[in-house]
Design brief:
- The protein is an alpha+beta fold.
- The chain has 2 domains: 184 residues, 3-Layer(aba) Sandwich (L-fuculose-1-phosphate Aldolase); 212 residues, Class II aldolase/adducin N-terminal domain (L-fuculose-1-phosphate Aldolase, 3-Layer(aba) Sandwich).
- 37% of the residues lie in helices and 16% in strands.
- The chain has a 9-stranded mixed sheet with strand order 9-13-12-11-10-14-17-16-15, sandwiched between helices.
- Strand 3 and strand 4 form a beta hairpin.
- Helix 4 packs across helix 6, helix 4 packs across helix 7 and helix 6 packs across helix 10.
- The longest helix is centred in the middle third of the chain and has 24 residues.
- It starts with 9 loop residues before the first helix and ends with a helix.
- 48% of the residues are buried.
Length: 430
């Protein structure tokens, strides 16, 4: 996502990225490998037969162009297909291969995930492809995968094996890998609900071509309130990523600073790696100089303008709730008391409303309806504080997952009107 000059050593990049993939449970101790081709033509790659959950920088292997290696371990047994991809695609500088469960499921069924579920996944994943089976570590596998990449594919399902993605740097490759697995997970969940709705070219273009036009300005020194909100946003965005409520390329989180100003996540930056200073202060038609606000900033601004009681907003794509957003199946939160008390009735927003500058998105949330389902674009959740918004996001995703799971057991039973009236009286809901 970023075009900044990279100053991180390949050993550290590979080690940190593999740690993240393993921590997200997108590979196993023995599965998966990562490589980087540097400007000298050397290929740095994760080692063979070393615990992926406990890699150190000294475990990473350098393979030179003449085939000699530097390192205390042999390179991954899958090195041949990494080399074949680099030979076939000079534009690719980094590769991620792993066995995340959703994409492995697609590989077993010999199918490709359709990334037109939502615009960001379609944009990030690039052209998807399928490589026929060959024995792991074999020359035949390298030839099969390289041929698929040669056809312009960037995200490739390996038949009965897993997935390989390439990027012009490791950050981009990881983001592509993560978005591809997220699309796969969402499709699997959505198919348990009903027919899946995909976006057409006009809808994809509508999202891709939107822009946020703010004038740059230099804010005064930050108040204690602003500094506290920066820290809260930083902490909760990171927590959201680690709990898989957000991913590195998706979602925006904001907090109101004053009547006409708010802090919001920046665009084109990995969500989990954000620091407090990365958040962008927006005031009226102005945004903090030297930073680019999320492209959802106008939608956040519209909600703050219409609803003075809202002090935090999150647009997110948690898998189970997003599965509802890509189908026509309504999410009934009248399932357990907590869900209804926290969320009330969740409205469905027609596709594209949140991309418009007319403020219409603010009509779909209120104090009595703090959450909404965005057609083919995840969810919108509001709160009186950053914690309140995050809490509601967690409850929304947990509720969606419980309802999907309940459907596999029997008929979903919602609470009666009498029970809802009792809750409204007990908790002062209006």
């Amino acid at each position: 996502m970023s075009s900044q000059r990279n100053t991180i050593h390949p050993r550290d990049e590979i080690m940190r990225t593999m740690d993240r993939i393993y921590r997200y449970r997108m590979t196993t101790t023995s599965g998966g490998n990562i490589s980087i081709r540097d400007s000298a033509g050397d290929i740095w790659i994760s080692p063979a037969r070393v615990d992926k959950g406990n890699l150190t920088r000294s475990d990473i292997v350098c393979v030179h162009e003449d085939g000699t290696t530097d390192g205390r371990h042999p390179p991954s047994s899958e090195f041949p297909f990494h080399k074949a991809i680099y030979d076939a695609r000079p534009d690719i500088r980094s590769i991620v291969h792993a066995h995340p469960v959703a994409l492995v499921a697609f590989s077993i069924c010999r199918k490709l995930p359709d990334t037109r579920l939502f615009h960001q996944a379609h944009s990030v994943c690039g052209k998807v492809g399928f490589a026929p089976y060959a024995c792991p570590g074999s020359q035949a596998l390298g030839e099969s995968i390289a041929e698929t990449f040669s056809n312009g594919c960037d995200s490739v399902i390996l038949e009965n094996h897993g997935v390989v993605v390439g990027g012009d740097n490791l950050a981009a490759a990881f983001e592509r890998f993560e978005a591809f697995e997220f699309a796969g997970k969402t499709l699997i969940k959505a198919n348990q609900l009903g027919d899946v709705r995909f976006l057409d070219e006009m809808q994809l273009d509508q999202a891709a071509n939107r822009s946020v036009d703010f004038v740059s300005y230099a804010p005064n020194d930050a108040t204690g309130c602003e500094l506290e909100l920066r820290k809260q946003l930083c902490d909760f965005v990171r927590r959201g990523c680690r709990q898989r409520l957000l991913i590195s390329t998706e979602g925006s989180f904001s907090a109101r600073v004053s009547e006409d100003s708010f802090l919001i996540t920046p665009t084109q930056k990995d969500r989990e790696l954000l620091q407090a200073d990365d958040f962008v202060l927006v005031r009226g038609n102005e945004r903090e100089g030297g930073k680019q606000a999320s492209r959802a900033a106008r939608a956040h601004q519209a909600v703050y303008k219409k609803h003075p009681g809202v002090h935090a907003i999150v647009f997110a794509h948690p898998v189970n709730a997003t599965a509802f957003s890509v189908t026509d199946i309504p999410l009934d939160v009248r399932t357990i008391p907590e869900s209804y008390v926290f969320l009330r009735d969740v409205q469905r927003v027609p596709y594209g409303i949140q991309y418009q500058d007319d403020g219409q998105i603010a009509e779909f949330v209120s104090a009595s309806n703090p959450a909404a389902m965005l057609q083919n674009d995840g969810v919108l959740v509001t709160g009186s504080t950053v914690l309140d918004a995050f809490d509601r996001l967690e409850v929304l995703e947990s509720t969606a997952e419980a309802v999907i799971n309940a459907g596999a057991i029997g008929e979903v039973s919602a609470m009666s009107d009498q029970v809802i009236d009792e809750l409204c009286t007990a908790f002062g809901l209006h």
